[in-house]
Automatic annotation (TrEMBL):
It comes from Paenibacillus aurantius. It is an enzyme of class 3 (hydrolase). Keywords: Cytoplasm, Glycosidase, Hydrolase. GO terms for biological process: oligosaccharide catabolic process. GO terms for molecular function: alpha-amylase activity; oligo-1,6-glucosidase activity. This is oligo-1,6-glucosidase. It holds the Pfam family SusG_C.
Amino acid sequence: MNKKWWKESVVYQIYPMSFKDSDGDGIGDLQGVISKLDYLKDLGIDVIWICPIYQSPNHDNGYDISDYCAIMDAFGTMKDFDELLAEAHARGIKLIMDLVVNHTSDEHPWFIESRSSKDSPKRDYYVWRQGKNGGPPNNWESFFSGSVWEYDEPSGDYYLHLFSKHQPDLNWKNPEVIEEIYKMVRWWLDKGIDGFRFDAIAHIVKAEGFPDADDPDNRPVVPAYQMFSNLEKVHDLLRDLNRKVLLNYDLMTVGETSGLGPEQALCYIGDERHELNMVFQFEHMQLDAAFGGTGKWELRPWNLLELKQIMSKWQTVLHGKGWNANYFNNHDQPRAVSRFGNDKLYRKESAKLLATFIHTLEGTPFVYQGEEIGMTNVRFDSIDDYRDVEILNYYEEARKERIPEETIMKAIWSKGRDNARTPMQWDSSPQAGFTSGVPWIRVNANYPEVNAEEAVADPDSVYHYYRRLIALRKAHEVIVYGDYQLLLPLHPEIYAYTRSCNESQLLVLLNFFERQPVCELPDSIELEKAELLLSNYEGSSLDSGRDFTMQPYEARVYRLS
Ligand code: ISL
């Protein structure tokens, strides 16, 4: 058992624009975060991951950085940041930052210089290519719709942007770029931060020669993930970064790596690799997407057997070799309680159920702001109320393709990133207590019922359930280090597993649906001797026989030994 603090931690993710506004400009800020540190301390979390707070023109809410060593004006100053770090540390909370180095903003001085002329000394900081047959250099589609290439009139060349055209990709083949990045990373680490979440790190290396992706239909743009995801050279770059920079510090590092399975993940996180501690995998985020997961906006119903298959694979392949980062929510995903739970009739029960799952698997649990009070998706009637560049680009492209408005809006309601980005609901006062001004994005209308003040006051709330789950992790080492064994593999509604290490064993029973199935445990499990440690229903402790009915979205955690 290779013990590490980052394995034993619970991480809380803050999306600063939407967390807490202290000055009434409608945008969350660092003083706002500072004012809520005690709330987070009471919740029991160990680490904050704060999404980008650097200077940015905000085309992608801070993921388009124009100065890596300055704080976004709307968020405050470097003094505020230093105060946040000191105040978090004073409460025993660590802080990790978002490292966005696949691209910068098109307003970063490097890009302005690079763009200024073909002979610029910084031309090679980015990826410039000539067009082909009067069009872009190849057919790769951007994550945010359209081509990955943007034409630059004055020079007649195209630059590459995997995300929006305001996010040109850095050229990681240029040693000067790498040196600049290392310098910046050291600068932050020397301030005393505790690690990084590596944004879009799987994409920093692109296929040699930028070949077209195969497409029998000859469309102008096609999904081309294989051309810029998880390519072999990424690993050389990460190992070099470790050797020269990261290994000198005691850090938590987690990479955002879509498009891989656990075997490939081990190339990033295998103990002997010296690259990253963990990665965010996306397989379970594709359960409800069409075309085997590539059609983000085309929906399909998800099923529990597939979830079991994916998560069991990650649990077993990584055990003893690498470490999982477990999540259902983040700033890019719709709210899990609306997506995999039931935000109408069983909001609290299903929010607790999903939490029980994430917190009792092997791996570090990540909680996204608002998840701990059971915040739900939003449904704005008009596209004008949406702010996310991915949503707006998709809307425009889909309209061009003549997809009916209603179909587009339905897709946005269920999958759009703004579902997770509406302001944190602190109380039932106007604008949910998020701001005294006009929020940058509308507050979810359910804030009078769903808010932190109500949740803190109600001992039976989702919030208090999270507190108990987090405390349970601290009390039982088996939750952190135990191995995972799936039970009832073919049960379509109940997800059951044990976690075992040394002499301890836990049993987790989760009914993922509204129906009330009978739970029939295998003979090897002796429930009579078990102690119920946690449940989201009061009556659960009354069942001691081998077969019993589970309540809608019921979750139970037992200690077997
Ligand atoms: O989501 C993906 C595919 O569906 C990923 O491949 C991709 O890595 C992801 O969209 C990247 O997200 C991150 O970088 C973006 C930013 O907009 C997101 O908020 C951030 O999490 C660009 O910086």
